[in-house]
From TrEMBL:
It comes from the Bacteria. The chain crosses the membrane at residues 59-80, 125-148, 175-196, 208-231, 262-280, 292-312, 344-362. The lineage of its organism: Bacteria, Pseudomonadati, Pseudomonadota, Betaproteobacteria, Burkholderiales. It comes from Undibacterium arcticum. Residues 1-31 are annotated as: Disordered. Keywords: Membrane, Transmembrane, Transmembrane helix. Residues 16-25 have a biased composition (Low complexity). This is YjgN family protein.
Length: 415
C-alpha cells in the first residue's frame, strides 16, 4: 500500500549534515572518489497514512480490466489484478514515500489455474459419489495451510516501500502446526452431520436432532475467532521489512470478544426483523398471493439478509482492523488504527444506494471511498528517527534482495 504527505521535519536551526567524498584506492593505485549517503531529514512523531487515488482514475482502470477480462474469457484477470493493486499501492504513502506492487501476472495466472484444477477435481468427484467428494474436500482442506503460506510469501515479496521489499519467512510446516486443527475439526463435524442425515430414516432421537443443529453453530463459534487469531499471528509474526521483523501482540480472547459482540448484533437484528415481519404480515401475505409472489418472497429474503450483513460488516471491519494493527509492531515502531464502525456503516450504506441507482457503475468510486477511509485511519508511530531506521534497512537488506524469489505463484486467498 502507499501513503502520501506526512510530517517530515527538521528541528529549527539545524542544517543538513555536510557531504564528503572520501577516496578509495583503485586496483591501479589511483584514488577514486566514493559517494557517501547524505543523511535525510529526521522523521519524528506519528505519520498518518494517506491515499491519493480518485474514483475517476480508478473507473477507467476498472472498466478496461472488466472489458478485457470478458473478451479473453477471464485470462486477462491476472493482469487486471496487477494493474489494480499497483494503482492502490502507488497511491498509498506514509512518511512522504509510497508503496509499490511487483506481482507477475503469469504467476497469478498459474495460481488461478491451480485453483480451478482443484475445484474441477472436487466437482468431478461430486458427480461420482458423496464419499468421493468428501474425500477430495478433505484433501483440499488439508492443503489449505500450504496454500496460505504460498499466498503470504508471494504477496509480501512483491510488496515494497521506498524500493525495499517486504518478506514472509513463515514455512509451510509452521502453517500446518498452526492451522491443521481446523480442517480436522470441520471434517469431523461434517462426517457427524452426514451420519445424522443418513440416519433420519431410522428415527433419530430428539437429542440427536438438536445436537445436529447446535453442533455446527458451536463449531463455527469456537473455531472462526480462533482461526482468525492464529492466521493473523502466523501472518504478522513471520513478516519482515528488510531485516526488521513484525511482532503481533494480540490475544485470542480479544478476537472472541469481537466476534461475540458481532453475534449479539445479529441476535438483536433478528429480533427487530421479527417485529417488522409481524407488523407487515398482512401486506406480505397479500403480495405473495399475487402472480409475482415468489419474486417478492425472494427479494424480501435477500434484502433482509443484506441488512444483517450491512450492519455487522462495518462493526467487524472497524474493530478487527483496530485490534490487529494496534497490536502490531515493526521492530520498535508501532501502528495505530482508529476506524469507526459508524462511519463505515455510512460509507457502505451510501455506496449501496449509489451503486443501485447507477446500475453498478458507481462500484469503482465506492471502492475508492472505502479504501481511502480505511487507509487514512492508519498511522505509523516511530520510536525515534524513522529516517535513520529506514536507511539502516536499505543498507542491511541490499544484498538480500531477490534471494527469496524462487518458484512463486499467487492464490487469491482472503487475508
Amino acid at each position: 500500500m502507499a501513503l502520501v504527505g506526512f510530517d517530515v521535519t527538521r528541528p529549527p536551526g539545524v542544517a543538513p549534515a555536510p557531504t564528503s567524498t572520501p577516496t578509495a584506492a583503485h586496483s591501479d593505485g589511483a584514488a577514486v572518489p566514493t559517494r557517501q549517503a547524505v543523511p535525510g531529514p529526521k522523521i519524528l512523531g506519528p505519520q498518518r497514512f494517506t491515499f491519493t487515488g480518485s474514483g475517476a482514475e480508478y473507473f477507467r482502470i476498472w472498466m478496461v480490466n472488466l472489458l478485457l477480462s470478458i473478451v479473453t474469457l477471464g485470462v486477462y484477470s491476472a493482469w487486471a489484478k496487477v494493474r489494480r493493486l499497483q494503482y492502490f499501492y502507488r497511491n498509498t504513502s506514509v512518511a512522504g514515500a509510497i508503496f509499490d506492487y511487483h506481482g507477475d501476472p503469469k504467476a497469478i495466472l498459474k495460481g488461478r489455474i491451480l485453483a480451478l484444477a482443484l475445484l474441477a477435481a472436487y466437482k468431478t468427484a461430486l458427480g461420482f459419489s458423496l464419499a468421493a467428494a468428501a474425500t477430495i474436500g478433505l484433501v483440499l482442506l488439508c492443503l489449505l495451510p500450504w496454500l496460505l503460506a504460498r499466498s503470504f510469501h508471494f504477496k509480501l515479496y512483491n510488496s515494497s516501500y521506498r524500493g525495499l521489499r517486504f518478506h514472509f519467512r513463515g514455512t509451510a510446516g509452521e502453517a500446518y502446526r498452526t492451522l491443521i486443527m481446523f480442517p480436522i475439526v470441520f471434517a469431523v463435524t461434517g462426517f457427524f452431520l452426514w451420519s445424522v442425515v443418513t440416519s433420519f430414516a431410522q428415527r433419530p432421537s430428539i437429542g440427536v436432532i438438536l445436537l445436529s443443529g447446535l453442533l455446527p453453530l458451536l463449531v463455527l463459534g469456537g473455531t472462526v475467532p480462533l482461526a482468525h487469531y492464529l492466521l493473523k499471528r502466523y501472518q504478522h509474526d513471520h513478516a519482515y521489512f528488510g531485516q526488521s521483523p513484525f511482532f503481533f501482540h494480540a490475544r485470542a480472547s480479544s478476537f472472541f470478544k469481537t466476534y461475540a459482540k458481532a453475534l449479539g448484533f445479529i441476535v438483536v437484528g433478528a429480533i427487530v426483523a421479527g417485529i417488522f415481519g409481524a407488523m407487515t404480515a398482512r401486506m406480505q401475505l397479500f403480495l405473495r398471493a399475487t402472480s409475482f409472489g415468489w419474486l417478492f418472497g425472494l427479494l424480501f429474503g435477500l434484502a433482509s439478509a443484506y441488512v444483517f450483513y450491512l450492519f455487522v460488516r462495518p462493526y467487524l471491519e472497524s474493530r478487527l482492523q483496530n485490534l490487529i494493527w494496534n497490536q502490531t509492531e515493526l521492530a520498535d515502531h508501532q501502528f495505530r488504527s482508529t476506524a469507526s464502525a459508524r462511519h463505515l456503516l455510512w460509507i457502505h450504506a451510501s455506496n449501496l444506494v449509489l451503486i443501485s441507482l447507477t446500475l453498478g457503475l458507481y462500484k469503482p468510486f465506492a471502492t475508492i471511498r472505502l479504501i481511502k477511509y480505511r487507509v487514512e485511519q492508519m498511522s505509523l508511530i516511530p520510536q525515534g528517527d524513522l529516517e535513520e531506521f529506514l536507511s539502516d534497512q536499505s543498507h542491511a537488506s541490499a544484498s538480500a534482495m531477490g534471494q527469496e524469489a524462487g518458484d512463486l505463484f499467487d492464490l487469491d486467498i482472503a487475508l
